[in-house]
Amino acid sequence: MMLSLDKTNFEEEVLNHEGKVFVDYWSESCVPCMALKPFVDELAEEFGDKMKFCDLNITGARRVAIKQGVLGLPTMIVYENGEKLEELHEDECTEEKIREIVEKHAN
């Protein structure tokens, strides 16, 4: 299941979480983001018992995104105990690469 983040719960759900968290940064105006959503939702179903899956619509949470180094969309980041483990930005966000980082860190 995908947990929706916003500026009020990001710190608690991601930075203060013990364990691994996958965050999909997106916005409605980002066409590739919208195209990837169903795929990321499938990964959340498949690997949701191994790590927490969250998404953050950067509309209304731009400061949070910028603080996390998110300058373009889509961006996918895997965190562990609040630290970034791996990230994919814009053109790197292919289904293949997203699955690769999820499988790599879902252990």
Question: Could you walk me through the main structural features you see in this protein, from its secondary elements to its overall organization?
Answer:
With 107 residues, the protein is α/β, with parallel strands linked by helices. The chain has helices at 10-15, 31-47, 62-67, 95-105; strands at 2-5, 20-26, 52-57, 75-80, 83-89. It contains four helices and five strands, in the order βαβαβαββα. Strands 1-3-2-4-5 form a five-stranded mixed sheet. Helix 2 (31-47) packs parallel to helix 4 (95-105). It is globular.
Average the pLDDT over all residues and give the rounded result: 97
Radius of gyration: 12 Å
Structural class: alpha/beta
Helical content (DSSP H or I, runs of 4+): 25-40%
Globally, the shape reads globular
Q: What is the overall number of helices?
A: 4
Strand content: 25-35%
Q: What spatial order of strands do you see in the largest sheet?
A: 1-3-2-4-5
Note the main sheet: 5 strands, mixed
Structure summary, number of beta strands? 5
- Span from first to last CA? 18 Å
Low-confidence stretches: none
How do the SSEs run, as a string of H and E?
Answer: EHEHEHEEH
